[in-house]
Design a protein that fits this description.
By secondary structure, the protein is mainly α. It is built from 38 helices and eight strands. Strand 3, helix 7 and strand 4 form a beta-alpha-beta unit. The two termini are 44 Å apart.
Length: 799
C-alpha cells in the first residue's frame, strides 16, 4: 500500500505508517525490534513518533524519547542521554545494583543521573568519576544494552531517537551493536531521521541478514489526505493554492493554510513565483520550524532564499555574507537536513520545495530581506541574470529609464503565460516611463486577463483603444503595430468572453481585418471558442471557425496547431458528430501531451476543449482532460481559466457518478466566476450545484411517485446507454418524431432540461459507466451515474 495514502479523515495523518509501527510493537514482544523512520523536513516524522509513544504508553510500555542536539554540539551519546537519563534517575536502586559496578562505572562517564546513583562503596573510592567522557564506545554500547533490558522488564520498552541523522557516529555504532546483539527483552528501537545527507547515509547502511531492520519511509500525503488536514473556512482558491504549494508535506500545509490569502483580490500566484524573487505569500504566513539548524546554516538559508532558485555556494557566500569555507559548511548542512537538493546544473543547488524557499524568505525581517536581495543581485552568478535584474527593478521606485523599460517589457512578454501576476507588475512598471508606447500597457492588460482580472483589463483597454485610431501609422512601424493591436484585440475579446459579453467580443474580433485574422491563428481560435460558448445557433459557425483555425495554424507550431485541433474536436461534438470529434481529439491529445509545461502555457485552454469534445460518452476521459487543464492553469497562475475548468470538471464528475466531487468543483467554479465578476457563469455553476443537491429520484422501473407512462419509462431507460434519438427510434420501431415528443414530455414531468438530467434524476446507469463489479474508481461503488449532455440538451446553465 503506498505510504501517501495515509491520513484518512478520522484516522489521523499517516495512519498506515502508524499501523506498521504498532505492528512492530506487537512483534517486539517476541524478539527485540529495530525500525528506521525516515523522510524529508516537515513531513511529520516527529509527530508520528510521538503518536507511537502515546500508543505504547497506553499499552503499558515504558517509553524513552530523546533527540540529538539541535545546534550540532553536545556530549557523546547526547540522544541516548536525552532519552534515558531521567529513566536512570528514577530507576530502582536494586535495578542499578543488578547492572554491576563495571557497567555503572562506564555509564557514569556518559549519564549525569548516575553521579549519585551508584551505592557508596560499589566503585573503588566511593564515587563515580566525572569529567570528559573517555569510555570505550563498545563498552558503553554493551552497558546500554543491559540498561535497556533492565528498563524493559516484562512490559516492554520503546526507545525513540529523533534527529538521529544529526547524532554522532557513536549512536550509529550503538545501533550496529543492538543489531548484532539484540536485547533479550521486549525492546523496540526507533531511529527517526532525514532521508538524505551523510548522517542519513550511515543509518541507511544499517543492515541485518535476517531483515531485523524495518525501514518505514514517510512520504508526502496524497491530495485527499492533505485536503483533510486543512481548516474549515478557507476560501476555495486559497485552499487549492495551499494544496498545490505544500505538495502534501504536512508542515508546509499548516504554515500555508494559517496565513492570509496571497492577494486581496484572490489572484493566484504561479508556482514559479515561489522559487525566485519577492515571496508571493502573505506576511502573516507562519514561519517554518528551523530550530534544528545551526546559526550558520540559518544565515545561509536566508541568503539562499534571497538569491532564489537555483544558486551557487559563491552566491550564498556573497549574499550572507560569509567566507567561502563557512558558506560551504552551511550549505552542506542544509543539504544534509534535506532542505536543499542539487540542481541539475553541476555546482548549483535549490530548495527541495519552492514553498519552503518562499516561507524562509518571508520570515526574514523587511530590512534584512532588502539588504540580502541587494547583495544577491551583485553576486557573480546573478549580476548578469536578466531575471534578477528585473526583480530588482520591481522593488524600486520611480519611472524606469528607456533601457530598463525595454528590459521590463521583454521580461513581461517572456513570462506572461507562466507568471502572469508578476508579468503584469513588470509591464506596468515599463509603462511608467514617460512617453511609453502602447505595447507595455497592452501587455499589462493581457496579463490582467490571464491572471483573472478581466474587468480591470477592459477598463484599461477602453482607455487605450482610441490611441489605435489616433496614431497615424508609418511605413516602418505599420506591420509591427498591426500585430500588436491584433494580439490586443484577441485578448480584449477573451476578456469580454470571460465576462459573458459575447456580442461585444464578436464585434471586437470582427474589426480585425480578414487578412490579419487568417495570419494570426490565435484570432481564429478565439473566434471558434467564442462561438462554441454562444449557444446552439452558433454551432455551425463555430465549426467553420475551428476549421479555419486549423488551416492557418502551421503544423510546425505544435501548441497552436494542437489548440486548433482541440477546438475542432469540440465543434464536431457540439454538432453531434461523435466520430469526427473523437478523431480530432485523438490527434490533438498526443500533441498536447508532448508539450512541456512552459510550451503548453499559451494554450492551456485547449485541454478544456478536449474535455468538451469527449464529454458525451466518455466521462472518465473528460474528467482527466479537465483535471489536467485545471492543474496546468493553477501551476501557471492563469486564474481566468480556473472557473471554466472547474465547471467542466464538475459536470464530468457528475457524469462519472461522483456527485460529491462534482459539488465541490461546482462550488469552486461559482466562487471563481464571482471573483471574475462573470455572474452569468457563476449562476450556471450554482444551478448545477442546486441540481446536484436535489439528487437522483427512484428508479423508473419501479415508478414510485414518478408519473411516467410505460413508453416514456422505456425511452428513459435507453437514454442512459447513450443512444441517439434515431437509434432509440430504430430500437423501439417508432419514428424519430415520436421519440422527440416522448422526450419532451419526460423533460416536463421531471422538471429537467436535458437528457443528462433525466439520467441523473432517475438513477439510470450512464454510458461509459463501469460495471458494478469493475474496480476502476469511485464510480464502481455508485449506482447513480449520469452521462454528458447529448447534442439535444445541456446541463443547467451550459449555454
Amino acid at each position: 500500500m503506498p505510504h501517501g495514502r495515509a491520513g484518512v479523515p478520522g484516522q489521523g495523518v499517516h495512519a498506515h505508517e502508524l499501523a506498521l509501527l504498532t505492528e512492530e510493537l506487537d512483534h517486539a514482544h517476541g524478539a527485540a525490534g529495530f525500525v528506521r523512520l525516515s523522510g524529508e523536513p516537515w513531513v511529520g516524522k516527529t509527530r508520528l513518533a510521538l503518536r507511537l509513544a502515546r500508543a505504547a504508553a497506553h499499552r503499558g510500555w515504558a517509553v524513552a524519547c530523546g533527540r540529538a542536539a539541535r545546534d550540532g554540539t553536545g556530549r557523546p551519546f547526547h540522544a541516548l542521554v536525552d532519552a534515558l537519563d531521567d529513566q536512570l534517575a528514577a530507576a530502582d536502586p536494586a535495578a542499578l545494583q543488578r547492572l554491576g559496578p563495571a557497567r555503572l562505572r562506564v555509564l557514569a562517564q556518559v549519564f549525569p543521573a548516575l553521579g549519585g546513583s551508584v551505592p557508596h562503596g560499589s566503585v573503588p573510592g566511593g564515587s563515580v568519576p566525572h569529567g570528559p567522557p573517555e569510555a570505550d564506545v563498545h563498552a558503553v554500547a554493551r552497558a546500554l544494552r543491559a540498561v535497556l533490558e533492565e528498563l524493559a522488564g516484562r512490559r516492554g520498552l520503546l526507545l525513540v531517537l529523533d534527529d538521529a541523522h544529526r547524532a554522532g557516529w557513536e549512536v550509529a555504532e550503538f545501533a550496529e551493536h543492538l543489531l548484532r546483539h539484540p536485547p533479550e527483552a521486549p525492546v523496540l528501537t526507533v531511529l527517526v531521521h532525514r532521508g538524505s545527507g551523510p548522517g542519513a547515509g550511515r543509518l541507511a547502511s544499517l543492515a541485518h541478514p535476517d531483515g531485523a531492520v524495518r525501514h518505514i519511509p514517510l512520504r508526502p500525503l496524497a491530495r485527499e489526505a492533505a485536503a483533510a488536514l486543512l481548516p474549515e473556512g478557507l476560501a476555495p482558491l486559497h485552499r487549492e493554492l495551499v494544496l498545490r504549494d505544500a505538495e502534501g508535506v504536512p508542515g508546509l500545509l499548516r504554515a500555508l493554510s494559517d496565513g492570509e490569502p496571497p492577494d486581496a483580490a484572490g489572484v493566484p500566484h504561479s508556482s514559479l513565483e515561489l522559487a525566485c524573487g519577492p515571496s508571493p505569500l502573505a506576511p502573516s504566513a507562519p514561519a517554518l520550524d528551523l530550530g534544528a539548524l545551526s546559526p550558520l546554516a540559518r544565515l545561509a538559508a536566508d541568503a539562499a532564499a534571497a538569491a532564489g532558485d537555483p544558486f551557487t555556494v559563491e552566491t550564498v557566500a556573497h549574499t550572507a555574507p560569509l567566507p567561502l569555507g563557512l558558506a560551504l559548511r552551511a550549505v552542506d548542512e542544509l543539504h544534509s537536513e534535506g532542505i536543499l537538493v542539487p540542481d541539475p546544473r553541476a555546482g548549483w543547488s535549490r530548495f527541495r520545495r519552492p514553498a519552503a524557499r518562499a516561507l524562509v524568505h518571508q520570515a526574514a525581517g523587511a530590512a534584512q530581506r532588502l539588504a540580502a536581495r541587494e547583495r544577491a543581485l551583485t553576486a557573480p552568478d546573478t549580476a548578469e541574470d536578466t531575471g534578477h535584474a528585473v526583480l530588482a527593478l520591481l522593488e524600486t521606485a520611480g519611472p524606469p529609464t528607456a533601457a530598463q523599460a525595454a528590459l521590463l517589457e521583454s521580461y513581461a512578454r517572456t513570462t506572461v503565460f507562466t507568471q502572469p501576476a508578476r508579468a503584469e507588475r513588470a509591464a506596468r512598471r515599463a509603462a511608467e516611463r514617460p512617453g511609453a508606447p502602447p505595447g507595455p500597457q497592452l501587455l499589462c492588460c493581457q496579463a490582467l486577463v490571464l491572471c483573472g482580472r478581466p474587468a480591470q483589463a477592459l477598463t484599461a483597454y477602453a482607455r487605450l483603444w482610441p490611441r489605435q485610431e489616433a496614431a497615424p501609422p508609418s511605413a516602418a512601424t505599420e506591420r509591427a503595430d498591426t500585430a500588436v493591436w491584433t494580439e490586443a484585440a484577441v485578448w480584449r475579446a477573451r476578456a469580454l468572453r470571460l465576462l459573458g459579453a459575447r456580442p461585444q467580443a464578436r464585434r471586437v474580433l470582427r474589426a480585425v481585418s480578414a487578412g490579419d485574422r487568417a495570419a494570426v491563428p490565435a484570432a481564429q481560435a478565439e473566434l471558434a471558442a467564442l462561438l462554441l460558448e454562444s449557444g446552439r445557433q452558433a454551432r455551425g459557425a463555430a465549426l467553420g471557425a475551428a476549421r479555419r483555425a486549423v488551416r492557418c495554424a502551421p503544423e510546425s507550431d505544435v501548441a497552436a496547431h494542437s489548440h486548433a485541433l482541440a477546438l475542432l474536436a469540440a465543434a464536431h461534438a457540439a454538432q453531434g458528430a461523435r466520430e469526427a470529434a473523437r478523431e480530432a481529439a485523438g490527434e490533438a491529445g498526443p500533441l498536447l501531451s508532448g508539450l512541456g509545461p512552459r510550451e503548453a502555457a499559451p494554450v492551456v485552454e485547449a485541454w478544456r476543449w478536449l474535455g468538451e469534445a469527449v464529454a458525451d460518452g466518455d466521462a472518465r476521459r473528460a474528467r482527466e482532460f479537465f483535471r489536467h487543464g485545471f492543474g496546468l492553469a493553477l501551476h501557471h497562475g492563469q486564474g481566468h481559466l480556473l472557473g471554466p475548468f472547474a465547471l467542466g470538471l464538475a459536470r464530468a464528475c457528475l457524469d462519472y457518478g461522483e456527485p460529491a466531487a462534482a459539488a465541490r468543483h461546482a462550488r469552486f467554479a461559482a466562487a471563481e466566476f464571482d471573483r471574475l465578476t462573470a455572474y452569468d457563469s457563476a449562476a450556471a455553476a450554482r444551478d448545477l450545484l442546486e441540481f446536484i443537491g436535489r439528487g437522483p429520484e427512484r428508479n423508473p422501473e419501479n415508478d414510485f411517485g414518478i408519473p411516467l407512462s410505460t413508453r416514456e419509462r422505456e425511452i428513459a431507460m435507453l437514454i442512459g446507454p447513450g443512444l441517439t434519438n434515431k437509434q432509440i427510434a430504430a430500437r423501439m420501431n417508432i419514428s424519430v418524431k415520436t421519440v422527440e415528443t416522448h422526450l419532451g414530455r419526460i423533460f416536463k414531468k421531471l422538471g429537467v432540461r436535458s437528457r443528462a438530467e433525466v439520467v441523473f434524476r432517475l438513477g439510470i446507469p450512464a454510458a461509459g459507466s463501469p460495471p458494478p463489479d469493475e474496480e476502476c474508481g469511485p464510480a464502481a461503488r455508485r449506482p447513480a451515474t449520469v452521462r454528458s449532455p447529448a447534442p439535444g440538451g445541456h446541463p443547467p446553465g451550459s449555454g
